[in-house]
Design brief:
The protein has 473 residues and is an all-alpha fold. It has one domain: Growth Hormone, Chain: A, CATH 1.20.1250.20. The protein is 79% helix and 0% strand. It is built from 24 helices and no strands. The radius of gyration is 22 Å and the shape is globular.
């Protein structure tokens, strides 16, 4: 069985690496309370006013920055390492938050949003890759969920302090602290063993494995050999963008890409970025409702993380899509009634909050965490940096477009039409998962790679290593 210190180091490293993910969440959630404050010109306390149209860009531009950051992440991971990228990237949001906190005009506001967004893209790719590489196969899924749990916690933190201070400047000052804490804490852990071996640092890689598996870990030699074989094979098959679009890399790339796109087209970024708008329509307290929704997000993510290695990725994605489809349809029904049968909708003003809570539970159960888990585990070493960067860049690009166009879609399709549209995408995600997603629960990185390369019967060595790891880890 696992010895506590060995498992503890892996859990602790995942937590320390994901303090930066809390910083990502604070950037994502910042737009809702800050936008509500900046668009309110009814008080003398507001020293900077922006229009509703400007607020749409203010809310969305961090996602555009994140998309660019994901492309930069590929280069950073290669030259600075996984741990190094997490360490050095904290400089970026510090600059962005300083601009936001001190901004005297709209131009500096949106510049700060783009710069902080760069960090979102770099960190999410770096953290998911780092955790996917150092964690043991039997807890890799659980550790992979930490990224989104901490993102949700950052969103909650921003909502709470946004309500307390009612100032986008004070709120931003608190958010700026999180990446700095992450950069300090990550100094106390080891670099990914896979990255170290790929750079010829075998002694450091062995020390890294001992750090994450324990000093007496009996399969160090076997795992070192498996990692070296994997690296050697990847060097023989050195890949470029064209190779990414060919077998055997195309299948895992398309799976992650589709799941990432579904993560956005099921409406999460649009809902989170516009909670104040959603709850303003039925005349509920936007601050209170947003905080309740964020608390549910964090709590349900914590609960659902314990099922990742028990239920598996595939079944949780199916359940997640089904729950979101129902809850978004509920929101669609409410806004339809509000537009065409106002007297009836007045008797169920509680429905949007209930629907959002159910939606967030469903999102947290699968699509909130599992696409990032899969991003960290299913790519072959020769394409991992490139494929991860491109996949994440596309998902943040989708988030940018959806957040920016959310109000436009509402004007075109009416609010109820938008939520019915998102509900339809959730239904599509269920069918896609049923037919196309491979279950990676309990699989080593080599076993997953063998499956997608059509080499499942490669040898019994990987299976033996997996068994040994579970016995001693």
């Amino acid at each position: 069985m696992a010895t506590d210190p060995e498992v503890f180091r892996q859990y602790l490293t995942a937590i320390l690496a994901n303090i930066g993910s809390m910083g990502v969440g604070s950037i994502m959630g910042y737009a809702s309370p800050a936008g509500a404050y900046l668009t309110n010109n009814s008080t003398d306390k507001n020293d900077l006013y922006i229009t509703s149209s400007e607020n749409s860009w203010f809310s969305s531009l961090s996602n555009l920055g994140a998309s660019i950051g994901c492309i930069l992440a590929g280069f950073c991971l290669r030259y600075f390492g996984r741990r190094g990228t997490i360490l050095y990237s904290s400089i970026i949001p510090t600059i962005g938050w300083i601009l936001l906190i001190s901004a005297p005009n709209y131009l500096l506001l949106v510049t700060g949003r783009v710069i902080t967004g760069l960090y979102c893209g770099i960190h999410t790719v770096a953290a998911s890759t780092f955790i996917g590489e150092f964690s043991s196969s039997h807890i890799r899924g659980i550790l992979g969920t930490f990224l989104q749990i901490f993102v949700f916690s950052g969103i909650l933190l921003t909502y709470v302090f946004g309500g307390i201070f009612n100032s986008f400047r004070y709120n931003g000052a608190i958010c700026a602290i999180l990446p700095c804490i992450c950069s300090i804490s990550i100094l106390f852990v080891k670099e990914s063993p896979l990255y170290l071996i790929s750079n010829g640092k075998e002694l450091e890689a062995e020390e890294s494995l001992k750090f994450y598996r324990g000093e007496n870990y009996s399969s160090i030699v076997k795992e070192m050999k498996a990692l070296k074989d994997s690296i050697e094979e990847s060097r023989k098959n050195k890949a470029n963008l064209r190779d990414l679009l060919r077998r055997p890399n195309l299948k895992p790339f398309s799976v992650v890409l589709c799941l990432m796109i579904f993560q956005q087209t099921t409406g999460f970024m649009a809902v989170i970025s516009n909670l104040a708008l959603i709850f303003q329509d039925p005349k509920m307290s936007a601050d209170t409702s947003s905080i309740i929704a964020a608390v549910v997000n964090v709590a349900s993510s914590l609960i659902c993380s314990s099922f990742v290695e028990k239920a598996g990725r595939k079944i949780l994605l199916i359940i997640s899509g089904a729950i979101m489809a129902v809850s978004l349809a509920m929101m669609g029904v409410f806004f339809y009634l509000m537009e065409y049968h106002n007297s009836l909708s007045n008797s169920i003003t509680w429905l949007p909050l209930l629907a959002v809570i159910i939606y967030l539970i469903g999102f947290s159960a699968g699509y909130g965490v599992l696409p990032w888990v899969l991003l960290g585990e299913i790519f072959a070493p020769e394409v991992k940096e490139m494929a991860s960067s491109i996949s994440a860049a596309i998902v943040w690009g989708c988030a940018f477009l959806l957040s920016l166009l959310f109000k436009v879609l509402q004007d075109m399709l009416h609010p109820f039409g938008v939520y019915f549209l998102f509900s339809g995408f959730c239904v599509l995600s269920v069918f896609y998962t049923l037919t196309s997603v491979y279950e990676t629960k309990g699989k080593t990185l080599q076993e997953i790679n063998d499956y997608y390369s059509g080499n499942e019967n490669r040898s019994d060595e990987v299976m033996t290593l997996n068994s040994d790891t579970k016995d001693v880890a």
